[in-house]
Amino acid sequence: MNFGTTEILLIVAVLFLLFGASRLPQLAKSLGQSRKAFKEGMREAEEEESQQKMASAPAAPQINQMSDEALAEEMRRRAEANQS
């Protein structure tokens, strides 16, 4: 959807008629603040989602709670993962 010069001038003229010249800067400022708040909320939601994903990831087994065979198997698995 591309707007030409005529369409933009018509929109600006209608805005002047509806809100008046004194209210347009306030309207633009509130629109900018709303946009900034929306972006901040989206960023926070993405951070929260990534933190939840990290928290739900399986924890690495504790070495002191593993048998020797399980420890050797875990070392082999990690070595294979590093080679891939």
Characteristics:
3 helices, 84 residues
Describe this structure in words.
The protein has 84 residues and is an all-alpha fold. The chain has a domain at 1-56. The relative contact order is 0.05. It contains three helices and no strands. The two termini are 47 Å apart. Helices cover 76% and strands 0% of the residues.
Task: Identify the quaternary structure here.
Answer: single chain
Helix content: over 70%
- DSSP strand count: 0
- Helix tally equals 3
Shape: rod-shaped
Mean pLDDT: 83
Poorly predicted regions are none
Terminal CA distance reads: 47 Å
Put the structure in a nutshell.
The protein has 84 residues and is mostly helical.
Mind sketching the topology for me?
Blueprint: H1 5-19, H2 24-56, H3 68-83
